[in-house]
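Researcher: I'd like a candidate sequence for this fold, 253 residues long. If you have to choose between options at a position, lean toward the conservative one.
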């Protein structure tokens, strides 16, 4: 079983993660430290779990290729090459206007979860983290594109895992995204079609989640675009925020 006692952080220059209290965590981050992702298992993203995102499709959700709203979570994998930590630098491909910054609640699984009922699902959660689920802007929804969602560094995680005992209601958390030079973007986990318990229940109905896996609650509708050369900050509730920067990448000749 995986269960952080308090706040789990993995500094970039240290081989192992630390479990520290909130005050110590903030003191470490105030020094400007860079971090590895605080988790190292599989990360699964979820599409169309935000009421605004589904509503924005309008009548198109009833037309081919969709034909109907999804009756089960639409999942995709954020593979290992995408995983980076707090203060990472993420490249924006030349010719692309920017990266869509999906600030999402990361649900960290604490023990093997299979066919878990919704009313018991939170017992399988070790804690929560902030996930910057990044993508190149695109229109494909029901068939998530690896090319757009799985580029190097496109899943920034951290800076810490907050133990579940510190989060009494994960469905009542504010999300704030600040992209340098742009208006602040605000969202809330309460707009999710499937809350944390229901999402875990529906996912584990058809697949097993293992200890340490991360399931995101999904990207809020209207996620901002970050061009190259800016700093991005994502905060959930009063947790220490996750930060990263974008840099320009030249396309191959």
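Model: Candidate sequence:
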């Amino acid at each position: 079983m995986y269960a952080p006692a308090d706040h789990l952080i993995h500094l970039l220059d240290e081989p192992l993660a630390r479990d520290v209290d909130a005050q110590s965590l903030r003191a470490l981050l105030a020094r400007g430290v860079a971090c590895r992702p605080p988790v190292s298992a599989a990360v699964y993203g979820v599409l169309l779990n935000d009421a605004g995102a589904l509503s924005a499709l309008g009548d198109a959700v009833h037309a081919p290729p969709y034909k109907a709203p999804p009756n089960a979570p639409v999942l995709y994998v954020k593979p290992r090459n995408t995983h980076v930590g707090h203060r990472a630098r993420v490249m924006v491909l030349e010719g692309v206007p920017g990266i869509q910054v999906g600030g999402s609640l990361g649900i960290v699984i604490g023990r093997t979860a299979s066919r878990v009922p919704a009313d018991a699902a939170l017992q399988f959660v070790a804690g929560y983290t902030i996930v910057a689920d990044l993508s190149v802007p695109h229109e494909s929804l029901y068939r998530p594109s690896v090319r757009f969602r799985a580029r190097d560094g496109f899943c920034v995680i951290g800076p810490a895992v907050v133990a579940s005992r510190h989060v009494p209601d994960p469905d009542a958390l504010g999300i704030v995204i600040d992209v340098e030079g742009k208006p602040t973007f605000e969202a809330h986990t309460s707009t999710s079609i499937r809350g944390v318990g229901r999402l875990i229940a529906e996912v584990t109905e058809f697949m097993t989640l293992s200890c340490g896996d991360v399931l995101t609650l999904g990207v809020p509708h209207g996620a901002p675009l970050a061009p190259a050369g800016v700093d991005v900050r994502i905060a959930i509730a009063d947790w220490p925020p996750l930060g990263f920067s974008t840099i320009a990448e030249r396309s191959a000749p």
